[in-house]
Amino acid sequence: MRKAALGEYIRLTWGWDEEFQRDFHMKGYDPTTTQIISYLGTEVGWLEIDRGNDDIRLTGIYILPEYQSRGVGSSVIKDIISEATEEQLRVTLQVLKVNPRAQALYERLGFIVTGETDTHNLMELG
Questions:
Q1: What is the rounded CA–CA span in Å between residue 99 and residue 112?
Q2: pTM for the full model?
Q3: What are the φ and ψ backbone dihedral angles of 76, each rounded to 5 degrees?
Q4: Contacts of 93 (CB under 8 A, 6+ apart)
């Protein structure tokens, strides 16, 4: 699913090496930070979040391409924003620079760029 959702952006940033990607993500997978995203009874993606004492870090949101642009990701992120607002927590994330569509979504939801790395823009809810 990750390849379907982000494969092109990963390829544009680092190139795609199937074995490396599989190993990298298996080693980094933490089921305690992962939630399945469902839409109309179908599993369409997953969400990875890291909850700290002062913040919620959105570490990944992956929606299958055929379910993108249907408001699924926006709805999930709005729920996170509501939770963070209620608990007075910051919300942060990073987005690949080669993924302007995702960055535009985050900006529409109130995130601002607060920094950058070679490959990512760092964002925080404004």
A1: 15
A2: 0.78
A3: -65, -45
A4: 57, 58, 59, 106, 111, 122, 123, 124
